[in-house]
Amino acid sequence: MSNSTITASPAKDAKPEKAKKPASLWSDAWYDLRRSKVFLFGAALVLLLVIIAAFPWLFSPVNAFDPSTCDLTRARDGLDGTHWFGSDNLGCDTYSRVIYGARVSIIVGVVATIVTSLVGGALGLLAGFFGKWTDVLLSRIAEIFFAIPSILGALLILAVVGRDNAGIGSVVLALSLLAWPLVLRIMRAAVITTKNQDFVLAAKALGAGPIRIMIRHILPNALTPVIVVTTMNLGVFIAAEAALSFLGVGIQSPDISWGLMIADSRNRFLEAPAPLLFPALFLSITVLAFVMLGDAVRDALDPKLR
Amino acid sequence: MASKGEPVLEVRDLVKHFPLTQGIVVKRQVGAIKAVDGVSFDLHRGETLGIVGESGCGKSTLAKLLMALETPTSGTVRVAGKDLANAKGADLKRIRRNIQMVMQDPYTSLNPRMTVGDIVGEPFEIHSEVAPKGDRRKKVQELLDVVGLNPDHINRYPHQFSGGQRQRIGIARGLALQPEVIVCDEPVSALDVSIQAQVINLLERLQNEFDLAYIFIAHDLSVVRHISDRVAVMYLGKIVEIGRDTEIYDRPTHPYTQALLSAVPVPDPEGRENRERIILQGDPPSPANPPSGCRFRTRCWKAQEICAEEEPLLQIRPGADHPSACHFAEVHDVVHAS
């Protein structure tokens, strides 16, 4: 903006959309993102995967949950016109199973991300803002969870839950329980940096209460690093869900999960590679898409990397 | 100019010691930084008190104490007769309406995620009894107009303004609650010289318009002289000399004031050659362990034994017309040129 704005006569009719446009960090970031090939590619892939997860029947003529579509006589058949990705040990269509398996991955990724962001973010805000004993208590609890190796910890939690009760809910629970301390730490650090800034002091001098200061002044200015980590975490959670299902403690049959499909077909891999390769390929693409998205968001939001 | 009557701000024996602690689990106090150590002054309606001193002398801590952003170790701050320093909750909130602040750095004192309308209107949201909801937007626009900003820019964000304009936004925020006292903590030191003049003129105009009293903290002596009715000179947490601007600038009696004034740049190449320069030796002592007696004695050319033994009180000395905290106070004009 030029310095002439102070003396300029109100030229509001001239460019009304420019005056309204909040040329803030977010709009700058959005401007960068729209020009980033990595972001556009990642976002397109994620969008496609979300649509697949929401409406799998649009992509697959066969309902993978219907056991009558499986034909044992055609088990481990190669690729052909009816079974595009071949068929698995039970003669079920791999293509439709891959399509229907997207839902579990997306749900686990998104829900675990939301839970960890809300829990870790809220506790991090409290720990950073109030400091002292609140901070000591919350940070130590977080460190206890942080010290547990993630896959081992998740295995343990899911073993306690038991195979009969295992499913999307327990996988989300296990992943969230182990991942929220990371968000807490990042939020806490960002809040501590923000709370010492002059505008927070100015709000205090006006007589603003702690809730107003937290919500109106600190949170909006401390959110950026949390958003970056959150976007990156999506891919990590999806990979972790597949790993847990592969190990047999995550999603259980008859639910469909890419990790479970890989586990089921690993013993006959040399005989019929298709039922293992295709879910693995989709898993890789999904994780890659979210990691690309996270990378692009970080590049756009982190001024230090510019 | 200074009108007599009830002072709008009374500060008495204000002390702020920051404890120095040792140990990680069990903290024990091993000393204290004496940032502000026994400061008293009065401020009347429509008056400006300039506070000068070098970095680390406690000016900004004093400002924070006046704004109740720090709790004083002892002493009182009375705003319009009510004790601010020891008030809590709703009382404190009510008293705050009478004392507001303009901060030093216009780039960090405005929330970058809020529009100008939200920033200037926030005082009304916090003190909702001041302005009914429907009027707020109009009031904010009036305030922007008063400080010389375009009221149509109410939806813009701080980074869309220049430094001087941002400082005007900060001033508008300070004015919103119609306070009687505004504490200006180095309000122009982050601005260009040309913009400094604009902001100072604005502050003077607002003072006349609203009968405001200013505490004007700065280290630029010319700026302080220009705007102040009275000036207090601080050294290591204490006021060493206080008086009307002419008394301080033309007839300084404390050696520190004299040294400070002799360092003011003079816009006259010839006079600059001949005038006296008092150069102080050494650094200011640590406020954690100030010298006994007079705090300035370690750097003072007049120091005698009595200075180490007896603390000089801030009082009117023989041969002077305003209070000075020096045993050997005498008038010595160092800046006659300016």
Automatic annotation (TrEMBL), chain A:
UniProt topology in membrane: Multi-pass membrane protein
InterPro entries (alphabetical): BP-dependent_transpt_permease, MetI-like, MetI-like_sf, OppC_N
Keyword Iron included in the entry's annotation: no
Localization per Swiss-Prot or TrEMBL: Cell membrane
Keywords attached to this entry: Cell membrane, Membrane, Transmembrane, Transmembrane helix, Transport
Domain ABC transmembrane type-1: from-to ranges: 102-294
Pfam families assigned to the protein according to its UniProt record, in alphabetical order: BPD_transp_1, OppC_N
Keyword Transport: yes
GO CC, any one term: plasma membrane
Segments traversing the membrane: 38-59, 104-129, 141-161, 167-187, 222-251, 276-297
Alphabetical GO biological process terms: transmembrane transport
PANTHER family: ABC TRANSPORTER PERMEASE PROTEIN (PTHR43386:SF6), OLIGOPEPTIDE TRANSPORT SYSTEM PERMEASE PROTEIN APPC (PTHR43386)
Family to which the UniProt record says this protein belongs: Belongs to the binding-protein-dependent transport system permease family.
Protein name: Peptide ABC transporter permease
Organism: Acrocarpospora macrocephala
Taxonomic lineage from the root: Bacteria, Bacillati, Actinomycetota, Actinomycetes, Streptosporangiales
UniProtKB/TrEMBL annotation, chain B:
SMART domains registered for this protein in UniProt: AAA
Gene3D superfamilies in the cross-refs: P-loop containing nucleotide triphosphate hydrolases
Family per record: Belongs to the ABC transporter superfamily.
InterPro entries: AAA+_ATPase, ABC_transp_ATP-bind, ABC_transporter-like_ATP-bd, ABC_transporter-like_CS, Oligopep_ABC_C, P-loop_NTPase
Protein name: ABC transporter ATP-binding protein
ABC transporter domain span: 9-261
Single annotated GO MF: ATP hydrolysis activity
GO BP, one annotated term: transmembrane transport
Keyword Nucleus: no
Keywords, sorted A to Z: ATP-binding, Nucleotide-binding, Transport
NCBIfam families: oligo_HPY, PRK11308.1
Origin: domain of life: Bacteria
Family annotation (SUPFAM superfamilies): P-loop containing nucleoside triphosphate hydrolases (SSF52540)
